[in-house]
Amino acid sequence: MSSTIRPMGRRAAIAGATALPVLGAASARAQAKFPERPVRLIVPWAPGGPADSGFRILAEAATRKLGQPVIIENKAGAAGVMGALALQDAKPDGYMVSQMHLSVLRQPLLNKSLKYHPIDDLSYILQITGFVMGVVVRPDAPWKTLGELMDHVVANPGKLNWGTLGIGSTQHLAMERVGLARGGVSWTHAPYRGTADTLRALMGGEIDFASESSGWSPHVAAGRLRLLAVFATSRVKRFPDVPTVRELGINVVADSPGGLIGPKGMDAVTIKVLADAFRDAAQTPEHLAFLDNLDQPLLLMDGPAYRDAMRRAYEEERELLRRLNLLPA
Fold this sequence. Notes:
By secondary structure, the chain is an alpha/beta fold. The protein folds into 2 domains: about 160 residues, Bordetella uptake gene, domain 1 (D-Maltodextrin-Binding Protein, domain 2, 3-Layer(aba) Sandwich); about 120 residues, Periplasmic binding protein-like II (D-Maltodextrin-Binding Protein, domain 2, 3-Layer(aba) Sandwich), CATH 3.40.190. It contains 11 helices and 11 strands. The strands form 2 sheets. Strands 2-1-3-10-4-11 form a 6-stranded mixed β-sheet, sandwiched between helices. A 5-stranded mixed β-sheet has the order 7-6-8-5-9, with helices on both faces. Helix 6 links the parallel strand 6 and strand 7. The longest helix is centred in the N-terminal third of the chain and has 22 residues. The N and C termini lie far apart (about 80 Å). The relative contact order is 0.18. The N terminus is likely disordered.
């Protein structure tokens, strides 16, 4: 049986020729629709701390930019890696993202049961800010300086309890480095689920001092806590009379940049949509005022550069933990 191929009419040819651009435009519009539903943003700390409060401001502003709600989900515990763990099982479609911080890099080095790789198994979206760390005590404490506190620790081994937001956190390791600088000390570290919990424990008398991020700032300003020293490279604007740890002769600086990450394999378009929304959110007057209130810097960095910076930080963290004898055998 033979078949005949009929020539295509002019009208049909025009219709066929125009169909491809229309289909291509429709496909582009479909891709550009992200997000079509709410975005879940995991904050791996208890509610009320500086990271939680800052990301709630960001989420509200990003919601306006994205046209879909950005819903905060607190997943506290495990030294702040619950967000990174949740991302290991999430689809790389941009509908689940998490706050990024240095413990996400550090904890797989400290805990062999954590199987994710902090560089290769995550998508880096945007670096946003950093944190000012410091040592705080209650206003009725007998120590007026960090030197006086450390002298008391050395003279009274095993007597003082101190808190941070978790084992292996930047705040924890910074204070342990201070102890090593004094030749090694005996004290009891109490990890809490977040900065807000640590500071409540300190003000409630459960611990003697805390090494924490600048959630203490309003408490210090109100006289509810006393700030002994900060781990920053320079004195903070709000408390110019408080020295840095480095000024006191102990070469410890702790700057903990943080931002936004997603699951491995996110496409560049989705990353850009989220990065643009959160970059704009980070520069709103509300967020800038929040940062100023806690003396936190704005450290915006796009995804590729952020990933490269964290890769370098990962190797530096490994070396630090080795020097502190904290790497598991």
